[in-house]
Amino acid sequence: MELERSRVTQRAMERAMLGVSLRDQIRNEGIRRRTRVTDIAQRVAKLKWQWAGHIARRTDGRWGSTVLEWQPHAGKRSVG
């Protein structure tokens, strides 16, 4: 939901950059080709993967690597 709102906002900004109205009926692909701006969803996904790699490479003992390597206990929970 939030990503779709970001995409809509980005398309509106790109139309404003080119001076194109919705009434001109130019497809989004054509606008994207003319502005040469990457899609916000692709940019967000790339940044998430970069951040995950950054956290995985840290060796200072913080919880990031501990969470990635954590294994749950195989025991059973108590009743109640």
From TrEMBL:
Superkingdom field: Eukaryota
Name of the protein in its database record: Jg75 protein
